């Protein structure tokens, strides 16, 4: 049986001793049988969320809310003081609302879990001498794995072979520059015992090269597994997140002030301290938007499920609202806007004549390179089969996105030749050509690019020896020719651009390719070219200048990964949420930096890992659906917030006034709790509500000013009607205390619940905007229950007493007039804000 191992220790051991230590073979790996046993012993290779909490723990976690705890304590004290009925009612209400909340959230959680299962990257493992791909979760210590560019390192591993292996371990070290790894044994001392050169760590991305490695640690035993929880917190705040935070602050402040005020006034003026306290707590419960987390997670998981049906996997459900506020989408070109079905059109020499020699050089380079599987290389290899049996590869300098070229070194009848291929401007930099020829080549290159053809240049030189070559050896090459490729735009790219434009999302292209090729593609897919910025031009700009510039630029060409990243950050200063769509290793930093990273199924693991959403279906139209789903989440969450702020707060203002002027409590604490419970339950269907088209066809924006005004004006409005009721029941037709409370209970419940039909839309309720059926049903049901309660045989236990019918008529009239006034107020408020916004633009 395998015992635990120390990472630094294995770094200093030669491969044979590692074989022994881990009871494996660096050629054949462990057997499938052995792997199964080890998998049982060490558990699956997953980090992140610890074990999923049990359902009971999830249920109990809802009791952690301080208000719930205070209420429970209050119920206990009530029971101790002999007020059993009170205690039971409070207890039942707590239980009911917690179970409702829990059940809704469980639905959302399960949906999220099902979605998560469909993901998972694969890795090539060698077991019992055979190599095949398995899910990375199935790896165990001792496994022999093969690494290549684009892979995510699936565990903490010790390298036993490496060829030009460059790894980005920024997820661990924060250092974004790729580091070279090798398999050599190194002595371990106290000051070099982390991030060793012959180790690769889970979560790092392979940028270039290949390697073989033995798995040492898996799952939570890995370096990243032990710190996984801290890593998740690194997300930057978005418009939606910021809005939610400000909203939370606002509500906490107002609640605190109101509750303390009500408690103090009640306690001083006339009631027992305990009653006043209970009353204040009930008010606090009424004010807290306790359903908000549920409303959000249900709305988001509905969005995610909907996208899953359309063929997109949502990795991070919390990103859905960002989709809704996204107002600019950056995309790379190859594979997202083009088909990625690249074909080689021809190979030409410097004068533009078709040349078999140039093709042979290109073929040698493409077929012998061992980096990422790359569509350009595949196209070269698919274009013919020259005989290269007599050539032997002796070295390779892998591709990287800064050099934009790569080289292989071949041996052929005792001579060594370096063959280099890459972006023409980069190849020309390292070639020995006179100015005239350079001009001639550039002209040819531009002509081809203008026709939308992609061009790589090929160059070569003879060498003395064929080993241990460096990037600096790519010099003094002689120019051979150009390889010309065709990569047609996707059929649906034009539709996508048009659709996105219609719903207010700006599209920008950030590519590593030449600007002429990009311009041609833009023309074909109907993307207007507003401005072009080239990578080297941006390097001369300060951040401030860049931030000003990016607004009017629609294509960014010849951009390296870091440069792409810089553009994303600059765009973030102007836009609410920046989206990035990309598939390559070079897109990973931008996918992370963007508010919402989108990748496609065929993308490299590194890109998929960094993305929030992965489009599995090839259709780009899913993007459109995703944005709409995001906006629905946003809109429905906002409805709940506006509801809570307007009607709820109004009631609490009224209570504050009543505390000063009434000689008794306007409602009993249990009645307030009951009222709040019915009101909350009525809203449980908000996440499933319909939305007006005009809310969905613009990027959503969190507008704190609207929220604040809603609270003040709607709160005041509903308070005015409460005061009318108070006047009616206390002064005009004086009734008993129990009847007063019953009257206000019924009026406030009706106004609070029914106003949802007004708040949910900017238009005329029902006539211009139809609510979803579930919302209508839950609303009417809760209202009916609330209005029947006072007439039930046990109503007296809850302190209710029915009112005479003429007073009931007054109450109904007041509710109707209130709703009409609310509709008018809503219109005034929105027209005020749109005028203000129009003035600001
Ligand atoms: N296999 C390769 N061999 C040589 N050069 C390459 C290879 N792949 C890419 N290049 C060069 O590097 C440049 C940038 O790479 P690439 O086009 O993949 O970047 P990108 O930013 O992902 O662009 P895109 O928007 O086209 O996906 C290419 O335009 C090409 O000149
Ligand atoms: Mg790309």
From TrEMBL:
It is a multi-pass membrane protein. It is an enzyme of class 7 (translocase). GO terms for molecular function: ATP binding; ATP hydrolysis activity; P-type magnesium transporter activity. SUPFAM superfamilies: Calcium ATPase, transduction domain A, Calcium ATPase, transmembrane domain M, HAD-like. Belongs to the cation transport ATPase (P-type) (TC 3.A.3) family. Type IIIB subfamily. Residues 9-83 form the Cation-transporting P-type ATPase N-terminal domain. Its EC number is 7.2.2.14. Mediates magnesium influx to the cytosol. One of its GO terms (cellular component) is plasma membrane. Keywords: ATP-binding, Cell inner membrane, Cell membrane, Magnesium, Membrane, Nucleotide-binding, Phosphoprotein, Translocase, Transmembrane, Transmembrane helix. The chain crosses the membrane at residues 247-268, 274-299, 710-730, 742-760, 772-792, 807-825. PROSITE patterns: ATPASE_E1_E2 (PS00154). It is found in: Cell inner membrane. It catalyses: Mg(2+)(out) + ATP + H2O = Mg(2+)(in) + ADP + phosphate + H(+). Pfam families: Cation_ATPase (PF13246), Cation_ATPase_C (PF00689), Cation_ATPase_N (PF00690), E1-E2_ATPase (PF00122). It comes from Chitinophaga polysaccharea. This is Magnesium-transporting ATPase, P-type 1.
């Amino acid at each position: 049986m395998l015992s635990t191992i120390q990472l630094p220790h294995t770094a200093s051991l030669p491969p044979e001793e590692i074989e022994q230590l881990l009871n494996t073979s660096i050629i054949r790996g462990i057997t499938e049988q052995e792997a199964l046993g080890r998998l049982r012993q060490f558990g699956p290779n997953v980090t992140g969320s610890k074990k999923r909490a049990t359902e009971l723990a999830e249920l109990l976690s809802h009791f952690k809310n301080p208000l719930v705890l205070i209420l429970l304590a209050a119920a206990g004290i009530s029971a101790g003081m002999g007020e059993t009925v009170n205690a039971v009612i409070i207890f039942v209400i707590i239980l009911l609302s917690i179970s409702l909340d829990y059940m809704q959230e469980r639905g959302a959680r399960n949906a999220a879990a099902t979605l998560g299962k469909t993901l998972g990257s694969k890795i090539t493992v060698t077991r019992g001498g055979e190599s095949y791909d398995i899910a990375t979760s199935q790896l165990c210590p001792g496994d022999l794995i093969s690494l290549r560019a684009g892979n995510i390192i699936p565990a903490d591993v010790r390298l036993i072979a490496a060829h030009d292996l460059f790894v980005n371990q920024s997820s661990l070290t924060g250092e974004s520059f790729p580091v070279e790894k090798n398999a050599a044994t190194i002595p371990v001392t106290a000051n070099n015992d982390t991030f060793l050169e012959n180790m690769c760590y889970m979560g790092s991305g392979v940028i270039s090269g290949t390697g073989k490695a033995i798995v040492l640690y898996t799952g939570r035993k890995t370096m990243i597994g032990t710190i996984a929880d801290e890593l998740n917190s690194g997300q930057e705040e978005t418009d939606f997140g910021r809005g939610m935070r400000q909203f939370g602050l606002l509500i906490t402040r107002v609640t605190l002030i109101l509750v303390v005020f009500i408690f103090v006034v009640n306690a001083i003026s006339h009631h027992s301290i305990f009653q006043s306290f209970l009353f204040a707590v009930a008010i606090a419960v009424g004010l807290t938007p306790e359903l908000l987390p549920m409303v959000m997670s249900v709305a988001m998981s509905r969005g995610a499920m909907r996208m899953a049906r359309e063929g997109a996997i949502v990795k991070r459900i919390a990103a859905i609202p960002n989709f809704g506020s996204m107002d600019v989408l950056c995309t790379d070109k190859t594979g997202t806007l083009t088909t990625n079905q690249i074909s080689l059109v021809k190979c030409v020499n410097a004068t533009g004549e078709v040349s078999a020699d140039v093709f042979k050089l290109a073929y040698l380079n493409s077929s012998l390179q061992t980096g990422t599987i790359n569509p350009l290389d595949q196209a070269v290899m698919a274009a013919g089969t020259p005989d290269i049996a007599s050539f032997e590869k002796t070295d390779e300098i892998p591709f990287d996105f800064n050099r934009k070229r790569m080289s292989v070194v071949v041996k052929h009848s005792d001579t060594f030749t370096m063959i280099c291929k890459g972006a023409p401007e980069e190849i020309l930099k390292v070639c020995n050509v006179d100015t005239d020829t350079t001009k001639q080549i550039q002209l040819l290159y531009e002509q081809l690019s203008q026709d939308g053809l992609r061009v790589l240049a090929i160059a070569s030189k003879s060498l003395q020896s064929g080993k241990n070559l460096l990037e600096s050896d790519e010099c003094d090459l002689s120019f051979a020719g150009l390889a010309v490729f065709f990569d047609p735009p996707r059929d649906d790219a034009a539709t996508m651009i048009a659709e996105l434009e219609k719903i207010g999302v700006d599209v920008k292209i950030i590519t590593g390719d030449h600007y002429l090729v990009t311009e041609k593609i833009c023309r074909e897919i109907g993307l207007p070219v507003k401005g072009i910025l080239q990578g080297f031009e941006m390097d001369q700009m300060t951040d401030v200048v860049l931030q000003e510039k990016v607004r009017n630029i629609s294509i960014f060409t010849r951009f390296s990964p870091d440069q792409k990243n810089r553009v994303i950050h600059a765009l973030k200063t102007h836009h609410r949420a920046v989206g990035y769509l990309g598939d390559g290793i070079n897109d990973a930093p931008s996918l992370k930096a963007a508010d919402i990273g989108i990748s496609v199924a065929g993308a490299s693991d590194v890109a998929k890992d960094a993305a929030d959403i992965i489009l599995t279906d090839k259709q780009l139209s899913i993007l459109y659906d995703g944005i709409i789903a995001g906006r629905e989440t946003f809109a429905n969450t906002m409805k709940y917030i506006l509801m809570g702020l307007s009607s709820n707060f109004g009631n609490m203002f009224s209570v504050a006034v009543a505390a000063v002027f009434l000689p008794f409590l306007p409602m009993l604490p249990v009645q307030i709790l009951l009222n709040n419970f019915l009101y909350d339950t009525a809203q449980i269907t908000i996440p499933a509500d319909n939305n007006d088209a005009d809310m969905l066809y613009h990027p959503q924006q969190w507008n704190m000013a609207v929220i604040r005004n809603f609270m003040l004006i709607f709160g005041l409005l509903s308070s005015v009607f409460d005061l009318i009721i108070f006047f009616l029941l206390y002064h005009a037709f004086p009734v008993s205390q129990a009847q007063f409370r019953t009257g206000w209970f019924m009026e406030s419940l009706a106004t609070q619940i029914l106003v949802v039909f007004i708040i949910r839309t900017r238009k005329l309720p029902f006539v211009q905007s139809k609510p979803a059926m579930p919302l209508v049903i839950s609303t009417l049901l809760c209202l009916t229950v609330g209005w029947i309660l006072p007439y039930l045989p046990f109503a007296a236990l809850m302190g209710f007493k029915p009112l005479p019918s003429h007073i009931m008529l007054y109450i109904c009239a007041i509710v109707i007039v209130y709703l009409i006034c609310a509709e008018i107020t809503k219109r005034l408020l929105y027209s005020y804000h749109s005028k203000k916004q129009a003035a600001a633009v």
